[in-house]
Prior knowledge:
This protein is an alpha/beta fold. 31% of the residues lie in helices and 26% in strands.
Amino acid sequence: MDRIVITGGAPLNGVIPIYGAKNSALKLQAASLLSAEPLMLENMPDLADTRFMTQLLQSLGVEITWIKETRTLRMHAAEILSTIAPYDQVRKMRASFNVLGPLLARAGHATVSLPGGCAIGARPVDLHLKAFEAMGADIHIEQGYVKAAALRGLKGAAIEFPFVSVGATEHTMLAAVLAQGETVLKNAACEPEIADLADCLNAMGARVEGAGTAEIHIQGVTSLKGAKHAVVADRIEAGTYAMAAAAAGGNVLLAGARFEHLGAMIKFLREAGVQVDAEGRGLRVVRKRGQRLKAASFETAAFPGFPTDLQAQAMALMCLADGESRIKETIFENRFMHAPELTRLGAKIEVHGNEAVVTGVEKLAGAPVMATDLRASVSLVIAGLAAEGETIVNRVYHLDRGFEGLEAKLAACGAQIARQRGED
Ligand code: EPZ
């Protein structure tokens, strides 16, 4: 297996391009199933997860071409050849489950494996299934598979989510655009990726209003057409490099990052003593070397709160801050697996249930570490950039799921980082 070797201590200076958001791209890819005409996605990230979604969609009959030079993915679902997403495909990547709604809406039925839990929590899909039932679908669970049918089509419905779910909001939208009549979603998630999905669906001829607020209205249409859409910039990728620059010190421009999508993180970084400003079409992050970070506390929350997908990276940063910071994880029940690995580098972290108390130290020291999920792995890279000596991050395949060209982007700014290829 590949590993990443970092010699810490080098500052980061330069420009880091921010690509399209993984968590938007995967749902936009699923949207290709809704139309018999081609969907062109520009600013696509090229990730293990997006490639995986490509393979799944191809198995369902979607013709897909990746145009590398323009970072464009062309997807054409002229005909749906299969409505089955098998266990092996959904187990490996939870976002695969998102093909259920579009298949149900376009073909009238689908059989999709339940995704099951994952390292960060149980992650049930009950809200997704209840929403489809409210739209008139028959849902049965047999041998780990969801069998869904709406042979006379889905019907618009009033759906109020009991709590905010990004996935359930998006998945319901992906089905409701082709339902008969109006669907109203209350207590919907407001993440920028939801507005991005609505923009793409509307470009395809859907009628979605209110995305980005807690109430979304969708007027169903009978068919959708082809469209071209640019994937929204990845706020988590941008936030990750902002934390990296803050940890290592230096001055970086995150080209393409959207200031308005990163409010909670910017507030946190400023409290920690990091300079963050909008600059042109990007974000400038500066931390002078020799100037110690200050402790800052936060709790994760749905947008516009502090994103759970940046919690691990922010914890890595706080390991070096002056004072004690408290971090509360409110979205997932088991998302502190990076804490014991960070302590291997000399960090002082105590975890009590869903709260972590980090007492900053002046220095971290490099060590071999291993991570169990995507954001946890990158938090170890951030700590390694700031630590003295060599840090070896194992299980790099987690990183490849969500960060394209991580080592190259960091090395171009002066980081001492390289990938060592290993045998699988
Ligand atoms: C999305 O997951 C992201 N994944 C996650 O990013 C992200 O952490 C999360 O949203 C929160 O922002 C993708 O977009 C592919 P939720 P999702 O539904 O949609 C519970 C990463 O690192 N819940 O908002 O699955 C759930 O268990 C990943 O890129 C139910 O109980 O998140 C969780 O506790 C990790 N029943 C909470 O709601 C349901 O039916 C919020 O989850 C659905 C969710």
